[in-house]
Amino acid sequence: QVQLVESGGGLVQAGDSLRLSCATSGRSFSGYAMGWFRQAPGKPREFVASIRWSAVSTYYADSVKGRFTISRDNAKNTVALQMNSLKPEDTAVYYCAGQYYASCYWCPEDYNDWGQGTQVTVSS
User: Fold this and answer.
1) How far is Cα 64 from Cα 116, in angstroms, rounded to an integer?
2) 8 Å CB contact between 20 and 92
3) How far apart are alpha carbons 73 and 64 in whole angstroms?
4) Where are the beta strands (DSSP E) in the chain?
5) pLDDT tens per residue, range 87-123
6) Quick one: pLDDT band at residue 67, thresholds 50, 70, 90?
7) Cα 96 from Cα 116, distance rounded (Å)
């Protein structure tokens, strides 16, 4: 499996922005889809955004559409999540995930590679 490491989380106020990054420790190949999921205490892990290897297609949860943007740099083996207009309900641990040739890009059960998570806390 590919090793993933997230970074960029922190404590911000409502309306602020954060940019999360996810780096792969190993080599990734064509067809490796990547995504972001989040989990709040006592709640199941939920889909946030995902992107195909070619970046030809991106997918977003309705709750973040228009506020979050996912992107990737295959040369650097990284994926980023730009989060704007953050809300208190965005507070969660954010996880980076990856899967070769995923069929469902918004299904957490279809991803085999997971990072350790990074905490995002939005106050007020």
Assistant:
1) 22
2) no
3) 21
4) 4-7, 10-13, 18-24, 32-39, 46-51, 58-60, 68-73, 78-83, 92-100, 113-114, 118-123
5) 999 999 999 999 998 899 999 999 999 999 999 999 9
6) very high
7) 8
Positive or negative, the CA dihedral 105, 45, 119, 116 is: negative
CA distance 6 to 116: 7
Type of residue numbered 2: V
Amino acid in the structure at residue 85: S
10 Å Cβ neighbour count for 85?
Answer: 13
Structure tokens that stand for 73 in this block:
């740099």
Sign of the four-CA dihedral 90, 91, 97, 102: negative
Name the residue with tokens 């709640």: 43
Residue whose pair of structure tokens reads 């995923």 in the numeric block: 102
Q: Which residue has the tokens 């780096």?
A: 23
What the block records as the tokens of 5 is 């490491």
Strand 32-39 and strand 92-100: pairing? antiparallel
Read out DSSP for 6-35? EE--EEEETT--EEEEEEESS---TTEEEE
pLDDT (tens digit, 9 = 90+) per residue, 18-41?
Answer: 999 999 886 667 889 999 999 999
